[in-house]
Amino acid sequence: MTSAEHIETAKKFLADSDREFLDGDDLQASEKLWGAASHAVMAIAEQRGMSYRNHKELKILTQTLADEYDDSFLREGFSIAEKFHANFYHGFMEDFELNGDRPLVHQFTARVLELTAAA
């Protein structure tokens, strides 16, 4: 996929996630949040010619971005997105976590997408 395709996928997954949460499908919605965050990171990796073949490479790139921009929220936001990814498999998140952490993944995704626009 191109960087632009990853950006569009991230935006689509955010919208899909919101709709699925409203429909009560917390597991699918959680995975779509993870997908949005990871595709945003893939977009910037694609722009920079960096590898993003696996979860570890996405995490390392996010750490690199956090250091480069002196923005610890990038690291924290990625970790929260990872929690939603795990929730898809285990369904362990409580309503207060789902409701409180969802906006943080939206913010993370938006922040990374802003970085793609600046590149």
Distance between the termini: 17 Å
Radius of gyration: 13 Å
Instruction: Please give the count of helices.
Output: 5
Largest sheet: none
What would you say this structure looks like, in words?
The chain is an all-alpha fold. It contains 5 helices and no strands. Helix 1 runs antiparallel to helix 2. The longest helix is centred in the C-terminal third of the chain and has 24 residues, at 95-118. The protein is globular. It starts with a helix and ends with a helix. The mean pLDDT is 96.
What is the secondary structure topology, with strand pairs?
Elements: H1 3-22, H2 26-48, H3 55-68, H4 72-90, H5 95-118
Helix pairs in contact: 1-2, 1-5, 2-4, 2-5, 3-4, 4-5
Summarize the model shown.
The chain has 119 residues and is an all-alpha fold. The chain contains five helices and no strands. The relative contact order is 0.17.
Key terms:
single chain; mainly alpha; 5 helices
